[in-house]
Amino acid sequence: MPKACNVAQVTDPDSGNVPANAAVILERLWLTGFRSHGELQMDFSPGVTAIIGPNGSGKTNIVEAIGWLATTRSFRGAPNDALINKHAESAIARAEL
Is the pLDDT of residue 47 over 90? Predict the structure, then answer.
């Protein structure tokens, strides 16, 4: 199973710019039926965290879920239907900040 990631920047909704010193700290991520993950809960420690694991273990899917939560779009350009695990009827991505 892959391990974790920690800081995501936010943009000003009016200007689209990243405010100076603005950050959102991700504390916990839950995935259900998202891409290759059936059920996943990850707790993030303060500081920088790397997501490590063997090929095909779902590392990029975790990053994609974090990105989707921040933008409601896949950075891969995939439609939302493609984010649902083939064994699930729906996908849930939830974060605690």
Answer: no
DSSP string computed for 35-92: TTEEEEEEE--SS-------TTSSHHHHHHHHHHHHHSS-TT---GGGGB-TT-S--E
Residue 64 parent element (H or E): helix 59-71
- Using DSSP's 3-state secondary structure scheme, residue 45 falls into coil
The structure tokens listed for 15 are: 């200007």
CB atoms within 10 A of CB 92: 13
The pair of structure tokens assigned to 54 is 């063997």
Q: Compute the distance between CA of residue 27 and CA of residue 95 in angstroms, rounded to an integer.
A: 7
Task: Provide the mean pLDDT of the chain.
Answer: 84
Say if CB 40 and CB 97 are below 8 A apart.
no
